[in-house]
Amino acid sequence: MVSPESLTALAPPPGLLSSELDDLGVTLGPDGATLRVWSANASGVELVVFDDTDLDWITDTVPLEPVGAGVWSVTTPLLRPGTRYAIRVDGPHGPGNTFNPGTLLVEPYARGLVSGGFEDWRAVVVDGSFDWGGVTKPAIPMDRTVIYEGHLKGMSKRHPLVPPALHGTYAGLAHPAMIEHFLALGVTSIQLLPVHAFATEPRLLQHGLTNYWGYNTLNFFTPHGAYATEENRRQGPEAILREFKGMVKLLHQAGLEVILDVVYNHTAEESIGGPRSSLRGIDNRSYYRQQGDGAYIDVTGCGNSVNTSTDAAARLILDSLRYWAVDLQVDGFRFDLAATLGRDANHHFTPDHPLLRAIVDDPALAGVKRIAEPWDVGMGGWQTGNFGDGWHEWNDRYRDRVRNFWLSDVDYARRASTAPVGIGGFATRLSGSSNTFSVERGPLASVNFVTAHDGFTLRDLVSYDVKHNLGNGEQNRDGADTNRSFNHGAEGPTTDAGILATRRKAMRNILGTLLLSAGVPMLTAGDEFARTQRGNNNAYCHDSALTWLSWDHAPWQDDLFAHVRRLIRLRAENPALRPSRFAKLDEHTPSASVMEWYDQTGSTMSIDKWTDPAHRTLQYVAASTPEFEAYNRILLMVHGNERPTEVTLPEIEGVTSFVSLWSSADERPVDVEETFAPGDVVPLVGTSMRLFRVE
């Protein structure tokens, strides 16, 4: 465990980010505390201290002095644990500047916040002490990582075994009932939607809605207060911080990692004319991307874009990551719209951006998982596969190909008798997306997903052809129009037994593909028991039963959970399914999987069959090249059209048998391992998969 006291010694290498930006924010000392604030264009900065109970009662004001490199500083006994404070910043008028000496601003490095009302926040000094009791990070290797992405509140809000006082809280997520679920499922890493302090946009409040997902950050250092228990909210930011750390500690004790979805690309200050709560009032020209006349360059679609080409903005993000990874012991980060973070002074993306390299190279972040959402909405914003070493990326190409193969292609084939494409592109995704990620980065650069918080749930993906977002208050204009979904013959709920059975099998095929593919799988919370949002593919603004997980399941949902549990266990037991490197022709590559491809007759796949839309059946054989585990080999059958077929097991030198481990045709996984010999014929139902261990 890296101690907070080690942060200074772990400063970034000289020349990467300025050492003059060290120790920004409040640093406690024996005679009070020192506050350091950066503003390159300010003409004056003032500390404002408030009464402990009345957030409108200013008790003291103290000016900060310039100390060079844009830093303003003051040391005062007024700042002590529990002190409520804000800053006021004055400066010149002109394009890009929005200084107002009367505006109370949140200090960017504040570790605690309290609200005095809408758009009215006070920072709070916290001590941050906590007894970790020797509990350390689980440090799950990437090849064994199975990510479970979910909303902190939504996961435990309705769980019947979690006490009501803990529903939807940090403590609730770490309750034994939740931990039991995670461990029973077999996931290794809980990835939380944003837990940085955030606010709801005024337009949503006008519609009686809320920003449920939390992608509207107020402050990069403070846990969202509303996710703490009522008792700890009443006690204040110090108690909220302890509850967050307690959650991390308990999850770590259970061997589970905590990954945070972090939103550094924009803030809750929105576009010009929006709230002036922090960075905009401190130094708008330096913190946000803009044109010469002060108009914002918005590559996020959220009103503003943080300008990471300035050292101070980049350092703010890096220091925030260090704080969460070291002080709060977080195991990893998923970077929302990460392409924005890698844009230079000309607003072009570069994988060698100083911030992106600093995040990888900083010793304080050693061992931390770094997952990029590799796009934004600006020019050149789609960058899947283009991040550098040390980064893992959400693979939207994987998502789209898997959805196409099992859903939209099948829909097309029903109407045109033949699917639009063959199986080759699907096989490339199944085996690690080598056409997207370089040999040097390998298959683990790909975070594979088919669903996420944004979009249809798995159940809705197989139940709806179009989105149903009227409840969002935007006349169904919001949310993606292209979903590659397929309702299988009825839109939404149905009592047709045939359609329901086909939908269940489609879900099993998708989950089987996700959990048996090379790469790092990400499962969306609730998909393991087929939760629904009733066709809403953009439920960001619903904090209700629509988005909270339901723990009341029908028998078929329990069957689906059993499939997911079995698949995750099989992934763990068979290293051939989770290679760390791409194999190279005629070379021995440790921790790779040597792949062979056969058609349904047991013959080597021909070039023509890879691309033939009429041929969507293959046998995928992967053999591990042992480095840390015993030798292992698997065979996966994939059949991608709705007509049943028969598949002949291949004759492979040295192979004596194939042991059946899993089939998507089963409503519930069977426990009997059936053994077949090379040359045996195996029947497959339409659109199905089957996994074997090769012996």
Automatic annotation (TrEMBL):
InterPro entries in the record: GH, GH13_cat_dom, GlgX_Isoamylase_N_E_set, Glyco_hydro_13_N, Glyco_hydro_b, Glycogen_debranch_GlgX, Ig-like_fold, Ig_E-set
The keyword Membrane appears for this protein: no
Gene3D superfamilies according to UniProt: Glycosidases, Golgi alpha-mannosidase II, Immunoglobulins
Keyword vocabulary terms for this entry: Glycosidase, Hydrolase
Span of domain Glycosyl hydrolase family 13 catalytic: 123-571
Ranges where the record places region Disordered: 472-497
SMART domains attached to this UniProt entry: Aamy
SUPFAM superfamilies: (Trans)glycosidases, E set domains, Glycosyl hydrolase domain
Family assignment from sequence similarity: Belongs to the glycosyl hydrolase 13 family.
Protein name: Glycogen debranching protein GlgX
Gene: glgX_1
